[in-house]
Amino acid sequence: MLQDIVQKNEKLVVGLMSGTSADGVDAVLCRISGHGPGTKVKQLAFVSPAYSKEVHDRIIRIAKGDFGGAREICLMNFYLTEMFTEAVLSLCEEAGVSPSEIDLIGTHGQTIYHIPVPEEYLGKKVRATLQIGEPSGLVERIGAVTVSDFRVRDMAAGGLGAPLVPYTEYILYSDPVRNVGLQNIGGIGNITVLPAGGKLEDLSAFDTGPGNMIMDAVTTRITGGQHHYDKDGRIASSGTIHPDLLKELMKDPYLPVIPPKTTGREYFGDAYVERIFRLAGEMGISDRDILATVTMFTAQTIAYSIHHLCPVKPERLIVGGGGSMNPALMKDIRDALPEIEVMTNEDIGFDGNAKEAVAFAILANEAIHSVCNNAPAATGALHPVVMGKISQ
Fold first, then answer.
1. What is the C-alpha to C-alpha distance for residues 390 and 392, in angstroms, rounded to an integer?
2. Distance separating alpha carbons of residues 385 and 371, to the nearest angstrom
3. Can you name the residues that pair with 35 across neighbouring β-strands?
4. Number of domains making up the chain
5. What confidence score (pLDDT) does residue 20 get?
6. Domain containing 254: what range?
7. Which phi and psi angles does 54 have, rounded to 5°?
8. Is the pTM of this model over 0.85?
9. Helix or strand or coil: residue 337?
């Protein structure tokens, strides 16, 4: 089964992504030909079924690390398998293809916890990561070879297990004459910078800090749970940025850490947001102004990263992920980076919403061809490795 797929000139490949925002499943269908630097990708269809509020809230609770236990994670693992399977079936219906025509699935799964820096545990220094959503269910229901659990192989080689997309960005976005930056804004923000005409080992990539995570948490709190995100940046646009609060937030010790580095909900989670509201209360800042300020904070973490941590400064910054759909945030990014051409994936004919899902379709294709698909320059791994576990 696997050998037959490897020998195909073209494959129908599904990419699945469920991010730290835990708002739903991104599912994309691609036609992929070749592998390695010669990879060609055409997006055929994309769907993004949302999780219910109950599911979203349960994933977030589990991801905090202090709720549930083995039974809870076990149940959620197989529940998400059902959600991923339904997303693939919906995608096939959208594209007008039979599930039996799908050759390959690449799934990131749902990150439950990520510990990239060693912690003391039972007398040993341990790093760890856990993504759930059982691939065997996809194999059984869809009938396609499925590649999953990408992060662990990079971590075994000494890397942070993140970011995972720089390899695919190198394939899709490299420019022979211009330095290009790719800023993804999901729950967490991450940047990849591709030097003009550079090789894979020349890129730099790391997590810039919070993406939508803090903005979403503030929105949820100030609307009493009626909204989980600031649609079109409307609330933030109606507020005023508070310079003293912004200055305090920009003192965050994560920002000046030299890459490779990665972060997540375990750092920019509930306790972080509580601190923001405490500071805002002491400063007498209104709810709308808090949201306006943390929106600019996300933009400023991106600008700080470019100015202080990127060895090559991008001439063009292409913004993707859910944050690129927030006009208030995009304005703040442009204001923070007046010297750089800031645009979205849509501006160059790509689908920003599907970008990360496409990445996992490509990473799965590389894995079945035994092509190393991490970027040690970004993750800090000691050497290139083939990421992904193959189920068939």
1. 7
2. 8
3. none
4. 2
5. 84
6. 176-352
7. -60, -45
8. yes
9. coil
